[in-house]
Amino acid sequence: MFAFAIWDSKEKKLFAARDRFGVKPFYYNYSNNDLLFASEIKAIRRVKPAEPNEKLWANYFCFGSYGSPSETFYKDIEQLPAGHFIEFKDANLCIEKWYDFPEQIRTISNNHSAKKIKEKYLELLIDSIRLRFRADVEIGFNISGGIDSSLLLALVNNYSKSKKIRAFSFYTGDERYDELPWVERMIRQTGNPLEKVRLSFDEVPRYAKLLSDIQEEPFGGIPTIAYSKIFEKANQSGIKVLMDGQGMDEQWAGYDYYSAQSDSVVQGTGNSSSFKPNVLNSSFRSLAQKPEYPTPFNSRIQNLQYRDLFYTKLPRALRFNDRISMAFSTELREPFLDYRLMELAFSLPDAMKINGGTHKYLLREIIKGFVPNKISEAPKRALQTPQREWLGAELKTFVTENLANLENSAFQSWFDHDLIRKEWDLYKEGPKTNSFFLWQWINTSLIASGIQETT
Question: Model pTM?
Fold first, then answer.
C-alpha cells in the first residue's frame, strides 16, 4: 500500500504513484499549469477552494455511486486512480496506468486441479500474513463473525504461536445484528484476548460529525462509525497496527448479487428502495447519469468483481477505512489484498467461486481445516447495526436537526424539503426496511456544515 511523490531536482520533474488497489489516497488539482497534491482533500481546499461536483452528488442520491476512480465530490479536485502514476514537468501533467489488472489476469493459467489451487492459495495467504507481521510495535486485528476474519484469526495465530494477538470487535447490544456470538465461538477455540468495543446510540451524533469532517465525502453510515471505535480503542490500548479481512468478497464473489440477476451496488438491501430521487429538484436530478462500468471479461461474475474492485465496493471501503484508521493514529494492513492472492482467486472459473448457490465455494473448502464448520459454512452477512431502528426512534432528534440544517445549508437548492419532511414522516410511521436514503441526507447535512466551518 502506498501513495508517494518524488521530486527530481536535477530534471525538475515530479513522479508520483498510487498502489494497485488504491489503499492509500492521492488527491490533486491541476489548473493554470500548477499542480497541487495531498493525501486529504481539505489540504487542497485550503489553498484552492472548490465547489461541489454536482453531477457526482446527483449520481450519489440517485444511484448510490461514489464516482469514478478519478473523481471526488469536489469540482476540480481529482484523485489519482489505483495502479496509476503521474509525471509532471514543465507544467505538463501526464497520467498513465502502471498496473493493468485485466491484462494481468489474462496471463494467469488456471487449468490446475482444485487441490493444487487450494495449496497454492494457502501458501500465498500464509506468506501475505508473514509479510504484514513486519513491525517493531505490537500488532492487533479486527474480527467479525464471518469466514474472512475467522480465517485471518486462524492464520495470525498460526504465524504467531508464542503470543496470542489481541482481537478487536464491535457490537451494539442488539442481538439481531451483533456478531459477538460468532466471534466468541472462534475466540473460545483460540484463546486470543478479545476487546469488545460497544457503540451506543447516544454516541452516534458526535462520531457522525467527526467522521464527516475526516472523510469529507459521503461515508457508509452507522456501521462505519461502529468500526471507527475499534481504531480509537486500539489507539488507547497502545496498538499501532491492526490487520483486517477486507477484500475476500471481491476476489471470491461473496456478495449476494453475484448469483442474483441484479446490478445493485448496495449489499443487503433486498428489494427495498435504497434511494429517494423524488426529493431532488428536477434541474439537479437531471444531472444524474447512471454509471456504466467496463466489462473486460467474458464472465458476468468476473465483470461484477472487476466493477467492485476498481469502481464501487472496494474503493469506497478502502477510503472509509483509511481515513478512520489514520484519524486514530493506527496503521491498517489488509493481508487479503495482496495482489498475488487477488489475481489468483479472480482468475479462477466461476464454479470455483459460486457452486450450487454457495458463495466463496473454494475458499470455504480451504478454511475448513482452520475454523469450526458452523463458521466455514455460514452464509454471507452484511456488516450491520441497528441503524434503521435507531434513526427512527432513539436518534429522531438527531435526524430532525440535520434535516433542518440541510434546509439552511449551501446544498439546500438541490432538494424539495417539503418532500424530505414527508419521507421522514413516512419513515417514522413505516416498517423501516431501508435507511440508506435517510443516511444520505444526514451525511450531506454534516458535510455541508463542515464546509461552512472551514470557509
Answer: 0.93
